[in-house]
User: What shape does this take?
Amino acid sequence: MKTISIKLPDAILREIAQEAEARRVGKSAVIRDCLERALLRSKKNKKMVSCLELMGDSVGSFRGPRDLSTNRRHLVKAVAQANRSRKNPR
Assistant: This one.
């Protein structure tokens, strides 16, 4: 194991000392445990999110044909309408 030095406020040092005493372990063990838990938590929060999870509250709120997302004809129709509604088509 490598050794590092960090500066901590007195209030945090008191909390670490109390926790170490309650667990009957060293202060270093408490600090390592806290760091490991914080790092694991941040990794879990960065997991890949699906489109369904991002759009979950919008799913089912649109009325239209059932095959809207899979039928190319609907896409072509939507693009054609968008081009007609542009003020300055290119």
